[in-house]
Predict the 3D structure of the following.
Amino acid sequence: MISEWMRIMLDEMSRRKAEAEQARLERDRRLEERPKRRDEQRPKG
């Protein structure tokens, strides 16, 4: 049987893991957008 403390700790670990994954996805999305923005601003010639 899982103690209340253990359940709380597992919930906290799960929440932190989900937050870290979301932050990683947002960072990756921003990094992917950067070159596109530079290309769009570059004058065609």
